[in-house]
Specification:
- By secondary structure, the chain is an all-beta fold.
- Helices cover 0% and strands 49% of the residues.
- It contains no helices and eleven strands.
- The strands form two sheets. Strands 2, 4, 5, 6, 9, 10 and 11 form a seven-stranded mixed β-sheet that branches.
- The N and C termini lie far apart (37 Å).
């Protein structure tokens, strides 16, 4: 199983980025995938999940209306569209996959939210 994030970078407040999570090694339509972030000095935080099948999504309250999670089954890729970015969105963003379920609301003791597979992360920096 491989998850490769891309699309991070440096952007000014109010700007936009689209993160991509390219996956391989499993049947994409059968896995749930999420985006999580980790800011310096803070615990990992769940940002958005998309649960397959059915594409049910869940979004962190503080990014609702600004971030959108979506998937492209033809490309085995999940996206996180981020608009109106704020300095507090600065973090390393990780995508993760699980064959059962994705939740942003139960970090568990290891802060892996029960997700089986993780990418290496991509840095997002929002300047003020």
């Amino acid at each position: 199983v491989q998850l490769v994030e891309s699309g991070g970078g440096l952007v000014q407040t109010g700007g936009s980025l689209r993160l991509s999570c390219a996956t391989s090694g499993f049947t994409f339509e059968e896995y749930s995938i999420g985006w999580f972030r980790e800011a310096p000095g803070k615990q990992r935080e769940g940002v958005a999940c998309i649960n397959m099948p059915g594409d049910m999504t869940d979004i962190l309250d503080s990014v609702k209306g600004r971030f959108t999670i979506s998937s492209d089954n033809s490309r085995n890729t999940v996206y996180l569209e981020m608009n109106s970015l704020k300095p507090e969105d600065t973090a390393v963003y990780y995508c993760a996959a699980d064959p059962v379920f994705c939740t942003i609301r139960r970090p568990r003791e290891d802060h892996k939210y029960g997700m089986d597979w993780w990418g290496e992360g991509t840095q997002v920096t929002v300047s003020s």
